[in-house]
Amino acid sequence: MPEVMFAGPDGRLEGRYHHSSEPNAPLALVLHPHPLHGGTMNNRITYAMYRSFEKMGFSVMRYNSRGVGRSQGRYDGGIGEISDAAAALDWMQMVNPNAGGLWIAGYSFGAFVGMQLLMRRPEITGWISVAPPANHYDFGFLAPCPCGGLMIAGDSDELVPEPAIRKLVDKLNTQKGVSVDYRIFAGADHVFANHADQVAEALEDHVGTIMTRGALALAAD
Description:
Blueprint: E1 3-8, E2 11-18, E3 27-31, H1 44-55, E4 59-63, H2 79-95, E5 102-107, H3 109-120, E6 126-130, E7 149-154, H4 162-173, E8 180-185, H5 196-220
Parallel strand pairs: 3-4, 3-5, 5-6, 6-7, 7-8
Antiparallel strand pairs: 1-2, 2-4
Helix pairs in contact: 1-5, 2-3
């Protein structure tokens, strides 16, 4: 997985990028947890999601937001971090101008950043949100949410209690044309310490199902 450095809004950003051998492969961008609480692109859940996309034939990137690792700049309360994510997306799209689809996956704070990016970039075709901090941030901006996705919660999460995520899922599922695949992992806390494989399997199952459905719809046209 080659190391890449690319221009961000507040200096260079450090990432790891896997380029698929498939022509016009879909893209995936993976976002890490909160930088002030030890979140980096090498976080276990972030890495597990990255590897899952790689396994499925995607061109995929994970990166350190501003002020993390070798990325320049400093933490900006979420606003600058959304701009960093957009810069990472720009870089991937520049390298892959004919990509067949675009997915965004985020864990914890990364899920918040990912959903913000979803509202700004209409070309995003699917999303994964693991333990989105629904009790810490207002997700009311997801109105209307442009597409369905996969949301994962742990039933023993002490930082983001499962009912807060369920409330968000229920709200999204009332929107026209939006269907959220909601999965709750028994015994999982916020760090998903023993559940990285389960997260990876859920991602592969959801993404595989959606992409197969899309391919069948195209074939039926």
